[in-house]
UniProtKB/TrEMBL annotation:
Pfam families: TatC. It is found in: Cell membrane; Membrane. One of its GO terms (biological process) is protein transport by the Tat complex. HAMAP family: TatC. This is Sec-independent protein translocase protein TatC. InterPro entries: Sec-indep_translocase_CS (IPR019820), TatC (IPR002033). It is a multi-pass membrane protein. Belongs to the TatC family.
Length: 310
């Protein structure tokens, strides 16, 4: 007797979260993740394009409007930016919309990045996805906010260095490009300690390597801040370098905890991997108790003189 009710559906084998993936599977996974990230970026760009006229341009222009009027051209009380060509306004709006879209959609494409990395992690390490996305977004926002606050004093300092005989009439492309570069540079720089933690989670970078290179990391961080900051003034450089040093030190301590937990977990797994009926591996390292007497007189207890009389 056969019928649809008696037919058994073939069940798919359960997915092993720690199984290895083939090259084709990796490429397919990469294509899907990139497509989703680009879709999120496109939607964020549309939102940034619409946000341009509803406070975004005012927000970016505020540091320039806060400088003393005598630093602007003809001591103007207003702080209008200049556009020098016909298509300059359109290109500027597209550029700002794209960058704002990348920032707004960062939680989504960062999650796609983490989801692509997770097949190489252990099951208990995959739960850090939400933590990774939240930490990366928060660090980028922290860096951008610090750059924006620094820009108020930094911009006034830079404009005043030209002297009292010089006044500035900034173009929209130059000024907004400078502001966006500073915000992005600070935001991405604050992500570097998180990258070190992510490399430690996947087993590429160890805590011992980071601890040995601590001084070099701090020195290169200061050099990196000197080259990356668009203003090139010591105030802005220190505003970037000092928080990065603190974040790198926190990253080193996090990797220490991760490596300690990983070593403890691997020790437990190696103990449970021993089959029944098979002896556990012995520790072959030398010990002070391994020193056995090699001469017959050493086997006789007592002082050396007494042993010689016997």
């Amino acid at each position: 007797m056969s019928g649809p009710s008696l037919r058994r559906r073939r069940r798919r084998p359960p997915r092993d979260p720690e199984a290895t993936m083939s090259l084709i599977a990796h490429l397919t996974e990469l294509r899907n993740r990139v497509a989703k990230a680009l879709l999120a970026l496109a939607l964020g760009t549309v939102a940034g394009f619409l946000w341009y006229d509803h406070g975004l341009l005012t927000f970016l222009s505020e540091p320039y409007c806060s400088v003393p009027p005598e630093l602007r051209y003809q001591g103007a009380e207003d702080c209008q930016l200049v556009v020098l060509d016909v298509f300059g306004g359109v290109l500027l709006r597209l550029k700002i919309g794209l960058i704002a879209g990348a920032v707004l959609s960062s939680p989504f494409w960062l999650y796609q990045l983490w989801a692509f990395i997770t097949p190489g992690l252990k099951r208990n390490e995959k739960r850090y996805a939400v933590t990774f996305v939240a930490a990366s977004t928060s660090l980028f926002a922290l860096g951008a906010v610090l750059a924006y606050v620094t820009l108020y004093k930094g911009l006034e300092l830079l404009l005043s260095l030209a002297g009292d005989e010089v006044a500035f009439q900034l173009t929209a492309a130059d000024y907004l490009g400078f502001v966006i570069s500073l915000l992005v540079a600070f935001g991405l720089s604050f992500e570097l300690p998180l990258v070190a933690v992510a490399l430690n989670l996947v087993g590429v970078l160890s805590h011992a390597a980071l601890a040995r290179s601590r001084r070099w990391i701090f020195f290169l961080t200061i050099v990196f801040a000197a080259f990356v900051t668009p203003t090139q003034d010591p105030f802005t450089m220190l505003a970037m370098a000092l928080p990065m040093v603190v974040l790198f030190e926190l990253a080193i301590q996090v990797t220490r905890i991760v490596d300690r937990r990983r070593a403890r977990r691997e020790a437990v797994e190696s103990f449970h991997d021993v089959p029944d009926g098979e002896a556990s591996p012995l520790d072959a390292r030398p010990s002070s108790l391994d020193a056995t007497p090699t001469r017959p007189e050493d086997l006789v207890p007592g002082p050396p003189a007494e042993r010689s009389r016997r």
